[in-house]
Amino acid sequence: MSKQDIQTEEKFMRHNAWFSIFMGITLLIISVYPMLKQTSAPLLFIGAAAFLGSFFMFVIRGGFTWKLGYRLMYTDEFLKTIDTIAYKHVVLGLLFSMGVIFLLSDDLALNVSHSMMATFYLAQMCLVYGVSILWQSRD
User: Fold this and answer.
1) Burial 21-35 (b: 16+ CB within 10 A, else e)
2) Whose CA is closest to 62, among 121, 15, 123, 4?
3) In the chain, how long is the greatest CA-to-CA distance?
4) Mind listing the pLDDT tens digit of every residue in the chain (139 residues)?
5) Is-contact 121 97, C-beta < 8 A?
6) Could you give the C-alpha distances from 7 to 75, 85, 119, in angstroms and in order?
7) Angle CA(37)–CA(42)–CA(46) in degrees, nearest 5?
8) Which terminus of the chain has fewer CB atoms gathered within 10 Å of its CB, N or C?
9) On the CB side of 23, how many CA atoms lie within 13 Å of its CA?
10) Rounded-to-integer distance, Cα 62 and Cα 104, Å
């Protein structure tokens, strides 16, 4: 594997990390939006625009190759290790947040719906994955 291929994969990994962070922030806005008492349409519009913008940036800038085949695995062993550790952080973060939600479930039962919690869990998973990759691959 050439040095150019490794640098391309590192760039792709950072791109995936930033996409996960933007997706997590967008999902977090969407999950918290119904709980706000003084909601405004611009907040939801900004969240939807951020989601669509980050999605199109991902598709255009490197999420898919010219053959439109998505690359799921990295060929470099070091990048595979970073990816595996990031998934472990996602599982640990999800278990921690589910435990906290279980402990606070009596206070949240009236205000939070199942769809809001599912969106919150997805947002938390995206944020943890993106931050974990960026933290591990910093120079």
Assistant:
1) bbbbbbbbbbbbeee
2) 15
3) 56
4) 788 878 888 888 888 888 888 888 888 887 877 776 666 666 667 667 777 776 676 666 555 555 544 556 777 888 888 888 999 999 999 999 989 888 887 776 667 777 788 888 989 999 999 999 999 887 5
5) yes
6) 12, 20, 34
7) 115
8) C
9) 20
10) 40
Crossing angle of the two packed helices 3-32 and 77-103, in degrees rounded to 10: 10
Count of CB atoms situated within 10 Å of the CB of 96 = 12
Q: Are 13 and 136 in contact (CB under 8 A)?
A: no
pTM exceeding the 0.85 threshold for the entire prediction: no
Phi, psi of 64, deg, nearest 5: -125, 145
Closest to 26 (Cα-Cα) out of 135, 126, 133, 129: 126
Rounded to 5 degrees, what are φ and ψ at 70? Answer: -80, 135
Say if residues 90 and 129 touch (Cβ distance below 8 Å): yes
